[in-house]
Structures are given as C-alpha cells and as structure tokens.
Write a structure and sequence with these properties.
The complex is a heterodimer. Helices cover 73% and strands 0% of the residues of chain A. Chain A has one domain. Chain A contains 16 helices and no strands. Chain A is globular, with a radius of gyration of 21 Å. Chain A is mainly alpha-helical. Chain B is an alpha+beta fold. Chain B has one domain: Glutaredoxin, CATH 3.40.30. Chain B is globular. Classes of the chains: A mainly alpha, B alpha+beta. Chains A and B meet through helix 5 of A and helix 2 of B.
Amino acid sequence: MLQEFADWVTYTVLGLGQNSPLASSIDFFVYDSIKVTVMLAIIVFGVAIIRSFITPQKVKKWVAGRTEGLGNILAAILGIPTPFCSCSAVPLFIGFVESGVPLGITFSFLIASPLINEVAAAMLLAMFGWEIAVLYIISGLVIAIIAGIIIGRLRLESEVEEFVYKCKIPDSAEKVMPWKDRLIYAKNESRDITLKVLPYILLGIAIGAVIHGYAPADFLVNIAGKNNPLAVPIAVLIGIPLYSNAAGMIPIMEVLTAKGMAMGTALAFMMAVIGLSLPEMIILRKVIKIKLLAIFAAILFISFTLTGYLFNAVLG
Amino acid sequence: MVRIEVLGMGCENCRRLMSNVEAAVRQLGIAVDIKKVEDIAAIMERGVMLLPAIIVDGKLRVSGRVADVPEIKRILTGGT
C-alpha cells in the first residue's frame, strides 16, 4: 500500500517518467520516509512505556548486589531502554560506583545504554528487516556484557578518580507513576523524539536517495566490500570519534550497503558512531584516568571490529 | 521568590534547557532566582543522575530531558 502511494506521488502527481534516476530517487524517498517515521513513532512509544518503570536509581539498586556475569547481563539489558545524553555519563558513573556497583557492571550499563537504542533498532527494522535489527540488539548486548566483564577482571578500581569514591548521594524518593501519566509520558516521548530525529532521517534518506538514483550499483564493492579485510577496522576507527545519531546514519547505511558495502562493515561503523564518541570520552575523563579510558576505547574498538568481521562472514 | 536551579555539565542539551528556562521566566514576567549548577559534586549532592535537570524550590521537576517553554511555564506557575 505504501509502495503504491509512493509510486502514485512519483508517477502520477509529479508526472515523472518510469525508470528515470530522478523518479527512482523520489519514489525511494517518499516510501522510506513514511515507513521509517511511522515505525519509529510506534516503537519509541512502546519503549517509553517500559522506560517509565526504569529509573537509574532503580537500576542501581537492582544491580548493586549482583556478581560478575549475572550483574553484567542485567546491567546491559537495563541499559537498552535507558538512554542518556553524553553528559549524564558522569553522574551515572558516580552514582553507580558510589553505591557499590562493581566497575565492570557499571561499564556494562554505560556501554549498552548509548550503543543499543530504540531509534536505531526501529530504523534498522524499517530499512533492513527484523533479522538485522535483532542481530544489532543481541551483538550490542554481548559487547556490553563481555567488555564489562573484561574491565571488571582487569581490576582497574585505582584508575577511577579518587573523588568519585568520596561522593555521597542522597537517596531521592521516587513517586510511583499512575498508568495515565505513563501513557502521556510515552505519547510525548514518541512525538518529541520522532520530531527531533525527523530532520536527520529526511536528510539521511535524501542523501541516500540521490546515491540510490545516480550511483552505479557496484560503486563501493572494491573499497568496502567483503573482500577488503581492512574495511572493517578503518570504518570503526572513523566511526568512534564521530558524534552523530543513528537517525541520520541508517538511511545512508541502507544505500551504502545497496551499493556494495558489506553489511557487517556498515553495522560496525554504525555501532562505532553511536556507541562511543569523542565528546563522551572527554566527559568521562573527569571521572576515570586516562589509562582506563584508553582501555575502554580499545576494548570497544576490538569488539566493533570483531562484530563487523563476524557479520560479514555470517551474512555472506 | 522562586528558586530555580538548572543542572548540567555544559553540553548542548543543558544549554538548550537553560535558554528555555530563561524564556519561560521572561514570558511569565516573574521574579526568580536562577542558578546554574555545573559542578559534578554539587550535582551529585542533589541526587540527580540524568542531566539536564531542573530543580524548583528544592524539588526535582525535570531530569534527563530538555523540557520545552510551555512545560517550564506550567511548572513555574504551580501546575504539575
């Protein structure tokens, strides 16, 4: 139905001839932007309902008494619906460590939260299908769990700035939200987040549409195809310092993969962009010493690269 | 006088929240005491983990998102 609408806009309303690159670009743009927007609004609403039950204070209590393994798994899962702006990384970190959550479990949460988010999942679902969306969520969880366990095992407690251990945080009382408020909250979140990322989606799809209509299909095969083993680490290396949201990234990814970029390489690049950024590292430097920061970044670099290789092999 | 504290560590969202608070106060034309809290220790003392945040008269009203001007006006005029 949606495809028919896009065809109708392109060929009937705009009167463009079949098979021209411009028509192909516009058809693609109309179809993709409507599909992605609707799906995004629905998924963000659902996740916001879940989020209304989960606050950092609760996460902290739930993971505080856990041992390695179970604690990391729990922290990574709870990180999915709990997003934070990069500057919240510091208060979250202090809050967790101060209340006795082990360092490794804290990192599992800090890695999962930005790495796995509903906007990216919704867009992957809309543009690549459920298999890729599920693969993204599961690999994000595995990375967050394993990276957290490794950081925990390395016993790097001394690489945390001393003042973090001296912080005392008052327990803030939380009021229970009635269901009516949860629905209002979810509706507002869905509207706000969708509207906020919409310009990026449209821009991304527009850029994608141009490439879609004009670039030859095997354009990227040699540079970023499966047969170039260096493509994955280079994509991750470029992606890590970049700070962008998933919303603008994924439409371009869709086109890059259509033009010959290997799917694993594209996913690894996306994870590097959203999972870690230079602003976040600079802000984390306030609470952890440079050695731990470097270990953290290195572990993520290796994880994203391995994930890229794995997917390139599996999705072949 | 209403005491407003805007908590943030100077990121883009924190700046947007601050300017929304200032706009809301201007539109309401009320006398308030706005304080920007950027020190980590001071933020932690208030028990806030999600930034940016707004505390009005000692009560946490917004945390982890950029509230828009109408919402801040509702909060300041005593609504929920």
